[in-house]
Amino acid sequence: MPKLSGNKGEWSEIYVFLRLLELGKLYAADANLNKIDSVFYDIINIIRDENTGILEFRIDRARGYISVVNTKEMKTIVELPVSEFKTKADELYNAIVSANTPSFFVDDTEKFLDKISISSLKAKSTDKADIRIKIHDINTGYEAVQGFSIKSRLGSASTLINAGKTTNFIFEVTGNMTDAIMDEFNTCSKLFRNRFAVLENNNCDIEYDSMENDVFENNLILIDGNLPEICAEMIKAFYSLGITTVEKALEHVHTCNPLNYDFSKGHPFYSYKFKKMLTECALGMLPSKPWDGTADATGGYIIVREDGEVLCYHLFNRNEFENYLLLNTKFETASTSRHQFGSIYKENGKYYLKLNLQIRFIK
Q1: 333 with 360: CB under 8 angstroms?
Q2: Calpha distance 170→209 (Å, rounded)
Q3: 2-32, pLDDT tens digit by residue?
Q4: Which of 33, 176, 238, 259 sits at a 20 to 30 Å CA gap from 91?
C-alpha cells in the first residue's frame, strides 16, 4: 500500500476523526471559539466511505470500546479500546504541529489507520462534507447523520471564498477621467492604495457597475438583492483604503451607508446581509455554480483549535457560527494577472476597473 502523505489540513481531518471517537462528544463553540461546556452532541458513530465499503465506527460507551463495522456485510472488522484512539489522536496532533514541510508522512498513524481499514486521509463523499457523524441531541432527542466541514487552525489559514475571474466586480471610473490618468494608474506602484491616490488626486472615483460572472451575481441576489452592491462597497474599502478585516469593512460601510438604509430603529442591515453570504459560502455556495440554498455541510463547521481542541458550530446554533465568520475573516488580494483585474481599461468611451473578491480566514 502506498504511504499516506498530506498537509496539515488533510492530516487534521484524520485527527478530528480520531479525537471525536475518543471523546464521544462534539462540543459547541461561541463566536470567539471558546468551548461551551453545556452545549454538546453525543456521537453515536462516525461513518466513512472506504474502498472496502461503508464503515461505521460505533462507540460502545458502556464497554469503552469502538467497533469498526462493514455495513454491507454487517461484519465487525475489529474492536479496539477507546484509549487507543486517544493515544493515536495525541500522537497525530504532536506530529502535525511539529511538521515543518508542506506535505509529510506519519508512519505510526498510518499503521493504525490500516488496522481499522482506512486507506486514505480523505473519505470518499458525494457532498463537500469532510466528516459524517451520527449525533444525538440530548435536549431534543434528535438523531441524524450529518455532514460537517472541517477547518484546522494548525496549518495555514484557509480561504472561505476563492479568487477567480468569477469573483471580479466591475466598477466604472467616474470624474474627469482621461487616458493619461488611466496610464498613470496602471503604471503606478503595485500597492492599490497608491493607485487609488492617483484617482483621488485627479478628482476621480469608482462606482459599482456590474459583476463579471452572472452565476455568482445571481447567487448573491438569491441570498439578498442588495448583496452585489454591498460586496462592491466593501471591496472598494479594502483596495482603496486598506481596510482588511470583514468586521472593519462592515463598520466602514455602515458609517458611509451607500445604500441609504434607515438606521433609526437600529437595524444592522449591512452586517446581517453580509453574514448570511459568508454562511452560505461556508456551507457550500460556490461562485461558479448556481446556488439553490441547499447546504452541503448539513451539520455545520468543525474547527480544530491551535491547542488541539475540536469544537463545532452546529446549524442549530447558527447565530454563533455567523458571528464567528464575521469576526474571523479578512479580504485578500489574489493574483492580478491570473484573475485579470486591477488595471483600468477603456470600453465604448468609458473607463472601467475590475476588482477581485477573495476572503480568507484570519487564522
Answers
A1: no
A2: 6
A3: 588 999 999 999 999 999 999 999 999 999 9
A4: 33
Measure the CA–CA gap between 17 and 14, rounded to whole angstroms. 5
Q: Quick one: residue 175, left, alpha or beta (phi over 0 = left, psi -120 to 50 = alpha)?
A: left
Q: Which residues contact 1 (CB under 8 A, 6 or more apart)?
A: 114, 119
C-alpha cell at 91: 500522537
Residues in the chain: 363
Measured distance CA(350)–CA(179) in Å, rounded: 10
Distance CA 304, CA 14 (A): 11
Q: String of b and e for 259-284 (b: at least 16 CB within 10 Å)?
A: eeeeeeeeeebbbebbbebbbbbbbb
221/189 Cα distance (integer angstroms): 35
N- to C-terminal Cα separation, the chain: 35
Residue 249's nearest CA partner among 230, 266, 227 is 230
Cα(282)–Cα(243) distance, rounded to whole angstroms?
Answer: 22
For the chain, the C-alpha Rg in angstroms (whole number) is 24
49: three-class secondary structure by DSSP: strand
Q: How far apart are CA 271 and CA 219, in angstroms?
A: 18
Q: What is the value of pTM for the model shown?
A: 0.85
| Model pLDDT for residues 294-337, shown as the tens digit of each residue | 776 677 889 999 999 999 998 777 889 999 999 999 999 999 99
Choose among 282, 312, 278: nearest CA to 29. Answer: 312
Question: What's the CA gap between 231 and 182, in Å, rounded?
Answer: 24
pLDDT in tens, 38-85: 989 999 999 998 887 899 999 999 999 999 999 888 889 999 999 999
Measure the CA–CA gap between 116 and 107, rounded to whole angstroms: 15
Distance of alpha carbon 202 from the chain centroid = 39
Sheet holding 359-361, edge to edge: 159-161, 359-361, 329-331
Write down the residue that cell numbers 458611509 correspond to. Answer: 256
Cell (9 digits) for 19: 479525537
Q: Give the span between the Cα atoms of 205 and 86, in whole angstroms.
A: 58
